[in-house]
Write a structure and sequence with these properties.
The protein is α/β, with parallel strands linked by helices. It has two domains: 7-186, P-loop containing nucleotide triphosphate hydrolases (Rossmann fold, 3-Layer(aba) Sandwich), CATH 3.40.50.300; 189-382, no CATH class. It has helices at 18-31, 49-52, 55-65, 71-82, 98-105, 121-129, 171-183, 188-196, 227-232, 248-258, 314-317, 339-348, and strands spanning 7-11, 37-40, 88-91, 109-114, 133-141, 147-151, 154-160, 203-206, 240-243, 263-267, 271-273, 279-281, 290-295, 301-306, 321-323, 331-334, 354-359, 364-370, 380-382. α4 (71-82) packs parallel to α5 and α10 (248-258) crosses α12 (339-348). The model has no long low-confidence stretch (mean pLDDT 88).
């Protein structure tokens, strides 16, 4: 059966500005209220932090998150793309390879980008092999002039300024946003209602809308100070579910708050999922989930988690071992992880003195769970170690 939602592959050679384009295109679509998800289907370490954190910190985070393509990773991502629950922007990386072939086979449309037209030849063949609809065939010019040529079904032109310190605003970027927005023209209300019907949990929090006593998140970002009034307004004896786009620390705080009652979150790849049960142990070596521990000079245990394979199946995460905290010590959780795993970690460590989630953009941690004498939920904890 044909997939319900479009998936737009963003392809082209390295250093063409694809990751910047995906980030800015996603931001522009969100400003329009267009429901979608930007999937980094490549283990190159790119993420939103590349554009929201200071350059030195972003480079360090990118290095830590980098991995290698494997056939297993490509198959898992291709399967998730095929089973998508929302329209997708898919960052496919910079090389045509067996892995990108697998990714392309699960997509429906494509946007190609390169500094020179001839560099797109292998990507155009990829699009043709998999029968993708070519939305745009663009030239990337770092400091040039943006131009747009509306040539029928495929947008052609030059898009300029695809670098962190520059602006890509102009006729080409605007025309691309229009085309993708038209393709993603699903009613957010209808999508929400359809997804809401798939869970039996009564209290569902839409993170992009008003949640008393907080105002709507549309056009605004969550702030750590929002956590305390949010949690104070929620029932203490019912399961909770979370829907929509929000920072990892919001998901972690909600999951820890309602433990041990059921918590579910909506994942664009899997639908409604519950966090896994993780085991605290002194022997936490695992080939699926690794943890590097370091002690902050303020006596805080920083736990940096990583996925050696670049991907973790939700079912495979059940019962994984993680390091137990020292008694009376706060822990800060760190890593490039899916939201359901952040939720599982927050629930597993809820017995620590307090639990924080690292914010790479600011270099601090948001307290998402606290015990007696610990810092209040929503407080920011400065970190002193590198």
């Amino acid at each position: 059966m044909a997939p319900l939602f479009p998936a737009v592959l963003i392809g082209g050679p390295p250093h063409a500005g694809k990751s910047t384009l995906v980030y800015r295109l996603s931001q522009a679509l969100r400003e329009r209220g267009s429901a979608h998800y930007a999937l980094r289907a490549t283990p190159d370490g790119e993420g939103g932090w590349s554009y929201e954190a200071p350059p030195a910190r972003a480079a360090d985070l990118r290095r830590r998150a980098q991995g290698a393509w494997t056939p297993e990773l490509a198959r898992s991502l291709a399967r998730d793309i095929a089973a998508r629950h929302l329209p997708l922007l898919v960052d496919a990386g910079g090389m045509v390879s067996p892995e990108t072939e697998a990714i392309a086979a699960s997509c429906t449309h494509a946007v190609l980008l390169a500094p020179q037209p001839e560099a797109l030849a292998p990507w155009r063949l990829l699009v043709e092999r998999h029968g993708l609809v070519l939305l745009a065939d663009l030239i990337s010019s770092l400091a040039g002039v943006s131009t747009s040529i509306n040539a029928g079904a495929t947008l052609r032109g030059t898009i300029a300024g695809l670098a962190t310190e520059l602006s890509s605003d102009g006729p080409c970027f605007d025309a691309l946003v229009e085309r993708v927005a038209a393709l993603f023209a699903y009613s957010p209300d209808e999508l929400y209602r359809a997804h809401l019907a798939l869970t039996e949990i009564d209290v569902v929090l839409h993170l992009e809308r008003s949640i008393y006593p907080l105002q709507s998140r549309a056009g605004a970002s969550w702030q750590p100070a929002d956590l305390a009034p949010l949690l104070a307004s929620l029932p203490t004896d019912e399961p909770l579910a979370a829907y929509g786009v929000g920072p990892a620390w919001v998901y972690a705080a909600l999951a820890a708050f309602c433990a041990p009652r059921r918590f579910a979150l909506f994942d664009v790849r899997h639908g409604w999922v519950s966090p896994p049960r993780l085991e605290l142990t002194t022997d936490s070596a695992s080939g699926l989930l690794r943890c590097a521990q370091r002690m902050d000079t303020g006596g805080v245990a920083q736990l940096a988690f990583s996925l050696p394979a670049g991907y973790l199946e939700r079912a495979a995460a059940e019962g994984l071992a993680i390091p137990a905290p020292q008694p009376g010590m706060g822990v800060v959780l760190d890593g490039k992880l899916p939201n359901w795993l952040w939720a599982g970690l927050a629930r597993a460590y809820r017995g620590a003195a307090w639990v924080g989630v690292y914010r790479p953009q600011a270099g601090d941690a948001v307290v998402v769970r606290t015990g007696e004498g610990g810092p209040p939920v929503g407080d920011l904890v400065s970190l002193n170690s590198p």
